[in-house]
Amino acid sequence: MKGQLSRYHLLLLLLLAAAVLNQCGTRKNTPITRTYHNLTSYYNILFNGQESYEKGLEKYRSSYQYDFTRLLPVYINGNEELAGSIKPQLERTIEKCSKLIRLHSITAKPSKLEDKRELTSEEKAYYNKNEFNRFVDDSYLLMGKAYFWQGKYQTASKVLEYAATEFKDSTIQGKASVWLGRCHIELGQYREAEKIFADLAKDANMQEKVRASFHASQADLQIRREQLGRAIPHLEK
Predict the structure, then answer these.
(1) Cα gap 12→16, rounded to integer Å
(2) Does position 172 have pLDDT exceeding 90, yes or no?
(3) For the segment 13-29, what is each residue's pLDDT rounded down to a tens digit?
(4) Contacts of 86 (CB under 8 A, 6+ apart)
(5) 38-43: long-range contacts at Cβ-Cβ below 8 A with a sequence spacing of 24 or more?
(6) How far is CA 194 from the centre of its chain?
């Protein structure tokens, strides 16, 4: 009798698990699916990708040797040997970000809103979003940065441009735009970088998290163009 009861409980648990997994597919957009995919995205995937990225950069920075006989760079990326030494960490970051996007992106519209005739302005803005997993935009940004540090600027620019244009989060848009500008600088496309920074400069509500890197990147651009006088105000800011 005990054996039969245990098998019954096991079968019941399996059926319940199957029901939950069915409700948590990315084709449905409900409070349950959003909670499941947000939690799984961050704690199971993005956190590990971010950790790997930070470990790689820490190794890069600690190994970098400044040349004090020359003008010091604003940024220290671009050393091929050091970039190669942290390839495993960056590849793991890219793999984690790709996995999160592939398995946990939610683009389906919320089912409850589909049946409503009138939506508030907040509901309309929410309903018109392109992505409902809050960590997918972070994944695109992190992936673009990982490609950047590998020296794959063309690939990084495509990923970062997508992050800057497809998502509504102003901080993600700002950060992705700055990194996209940096890609253009590395590719020698100074006019393209200048256009991006000019558009960013129009944002009176630029996030503090974006402002410092914006000015640093502006300074880097002017130094590359040998406009040192124009770089100084940005360095001061």
Answers:
(1) 6
(2) yes
(3) 444 444 455 555 567 78
(4) 56, 57, 59, 60, 149
(5) 38/133, 38/134, 38/135, 40/104, 41/100, 41/104, 41/133, 41/135, 41/136, 41/139, 42/135
(6) 22
